[in-house]
Amino acid sequence: MTLLTKNLKLLFITAIVLVAFGFQAQASEKNDYQGPAPKYIFYFIGDGMGLSQANATEAYLGAIAKSNGIQKLEFSKFPNTGFYTTYATNRFITGSAAAGTALSTGHKTSINTIGMDASKQIAYKNIAEMAKDKGYKVGIVSSVSIDHATPATFYAHEPSRNQYYKISLDLSKSGFNYFAGGGFKHPEGDGKIDDNNTMANFGMGDATQIKKKQTNSMDIAISKGYRIVNSLKGFHALKKGDDKIIASAPHLAGGKALPYAIDQDSLTDISLGDFTQKGIELLDNPNGFFMMVEGGKIDWACHANDAATVVKEVLQFDKAVSKAIAFYNQHPNETLILVAGDHETGGMALGFSGTHYDSEFALLQYQNISYEDFTKIMNTYRIDKRGHYNFEDALALAKKYFGLGDASKGLELSKFDLQQMKDAFNQSMKKKQNKKNKDQYYLLYGSYDPFTTTLCHLLSQKAGIGWTSFSHTATPIPVRAMGVGANLYTGFFDNTDIPKKLMKLIENK
Ligand SMILES: [Zn+2]
């Protein structure tokens, strides 16, 4: 045997071994659950929530309580924890549509696809639809718009997450009992039919004509028996027995989402926890229920590298989980609570090169506004000043909203900090930003307001938090589980295993 054929033979054997092992790794996630189906299933998904987002919040709680370590979130106290990979079929770093499809259907798919295979031909049945077939009542709750990627993967089957109108039509087709949280992005009709082709390309007339021809998807929902509730009074009036409800927050922020927790007014806004509690009230019935609750804005705040807003979002998400825990305590032998995430966002790290080994998480408490609302303040300032802007004003705003520059809070600014702020402020004051050095500009500010982003970065860094990206990352994600069948959720598996285990759990219902 020549050396070459010997090597080829070796390669062939290695390939077989690798394939066998790969197959075994897949098959080893076997599931022989024989017990009763959980009657009540809570499936929480923190969008963009990896281990860092949860643990940073716990470190923050520990720091403001002046204790040395962390204070656990409620979901971190669950008895079972597993970790899973999140990659999509065509990209290692996933997106919310592909990750949501994996978490809802047990199938991997391509980026931007909602509840269908990667080639966008086959619609996959999801766990919420299966639960409905088994007689459970179904609720879908999110802090972002209810037609957004993650919630959509639990009731829609569309080639693109951007087909908001078609997704909202799928919503009323689902027949599910309770939709709640944010609003709808395009109930009056999509101008675009998908990422690349306008409706005109389909010979359907231009976008305006199409909009005129399309019936508002909310009217269609009403014709199918749904009731739309979008006032505080209407929401509080909802009571046990009310069915087929679409409840939206009375005051919506950007993207038809709930306002960030850090910006919410407890008197006039409805929190994610309130929507979850109402869901329990409306869905509870002798056949049980399945409720998916998404904390959708953890992701958005991470995209913007805004650590203080992330911490407040995670806290509000954990409060929603607490509502499920209170219910669990009344029905411990019939309830399952899962708390998962779809991917990590921002490459958030509990450590920053500039602070070496130091952490000062309590500093995040001095930020009292989200990057979103602060950007609005900056935009108003720029328009008001008409070119006569002043860095002293910027310093005052940084101090008022982020505590930055307030020595009594331990937030002194170094020369380097001030230089970064000045550069960013000058960029923010330009009507059209100077992107001469596009790569450098993007690394500094992403696609956000330069001054706002710089303040978010400076406060994060002083707290000892680093960010590596304005996008998602591929780090494995934890799932925490408590209740009936929770022991299936221990180990290291794939995101598709989470609904597969759920499907097995409800098989014998
Ligand atoms: Zn996501």
From TrEMBL:
Cofactor(s) needed: Mg(2+); Zn(2+)
The note on the cofactor says: Binds 1 Mg(2+) ion. Binds 2 Zn(2+) ions.
Q: Does the keyword Chaperone apply?
A: no
Q: For Mg(2+), which residues are the binding ones?
A: D47, H148, T150, E294
Instruction: Give start-end of the signal peptide.
Output: 1-27
Mind listing the GO molecular function terms for this protein? alkaline phosphatase activity; metal ion binding
Which residues does the record give as Zn(2+) binding sites? D47, D299, H303, D342, H343, H472
Note the superkingdom of the native organism: Bacteria
The residues annotated as the active site are: S96 (phosphoserine intermediate)
The alphabetized UniProt keywords are:
Magnesium, Metal-binding, Phosphoprotein, Signal, Zinc
The record's similarity note reads:
Belongs to the alkaline phosphatase family.
Q: What protein name applies here?
A: Alkaline phosphatase
Taxonomy of origin reads: Bacteria, Pseudomonadati, Bacteroidota, Bacteroidia, Marinilabiliales
